[in-house]
Design brief:
de novo design (two linked rop proteins); 4 domains; five-stranded mixed sheet; Ubiquitin-like (UB roll); about 10% strand; about 325 residues; about 45% helix; 5 strands; alpha+beta
Amino acid sequence: QVKEGAGAFVCGEETALIASIEGRRGMPRPRPPFPAVSGLWGKPTIINNVETLACVSLILRHDPEWFARSGTEKSKGTKTFALVGKVKRPGLVEVPLGITLREMIFDIGGGVLDDKPFKAVQTGGPSGGCIPARLVDTPVDYDSLTAAGSIMGSGGMVVMDEETCMVDFARYFLDFAQKESCGECTPCRLGTKQLLAILEDICAGRGRPGDIELLEELAEGIKAGTLCGLGQTAPNPVLTSIRYFRAEYEAHINQKRCPAAVCTELVSSPCQHICPIGTEAPVYIGYIAQGRFKEAFEAIAKDNPLPTVCARVCHHPCESRCQAGQWGEPVAVRAL
């Protein structure tokens, strides 16, 4: 018999799933007793993911040794991933455990969309952690992902490029976890709400000194004090983004700027925001378009007294964020 649930994220936890099948609200309960002793309607119950059952049928068709030939010593077999995000060939892929993130993203996924620099990848679904580009050779197995601060989870894999703000990334997934919290235990119900409020303040330019340390302390408390896996893993995006991209948090809080030019309340125009010296590129371009070259020179010389010299060595990050590039070609500022 197949019973359709209501789609709550928390029902991925086994005791919440049992409650949902029994017609009650999907909320976890303390263990013991474990479902193997007292589960569905008080009877011993075996709970497995569909992917596990699919592997069981293959093992029975072949043999355990056949299955164990794939994977690593501690992580046997294969795993199906949903490879999505800023990747050229997204989709569902089944790979042997132990394959590296580099092979997943660049060999199978074809690399980052539009050949932009690879920044990070999130594994494990909404509660997974982010792994930075410098760890792209990390093997995809349970122990290696845990050591990097992430999880295998449901097999989600989200690729991010340089235009991803890691503070906004943490805020986005924590917002999901907070809304999906069943409210059963206080650390998850109130803790995720407070984490989200701090992240929203940081993204809006209201961050204060000490917020990063407060996020870390609160996140660790939630992980240690919650009842089920949802609360225990919900802080992962926050903790790993701080662990690997702390400088982005500091830029949001101390300089009131978003290095990725994503947080709209901190960004005037993307091209000016991304410029290392904050040149008013839109004003400069506007004067040029009107033939007002003296005003154009004065506008750019205000921040850059040697525009001709600097133009020869500038790596022009403004062109990568030029809004005109969304419907045509980016404006080549250096050529003006």
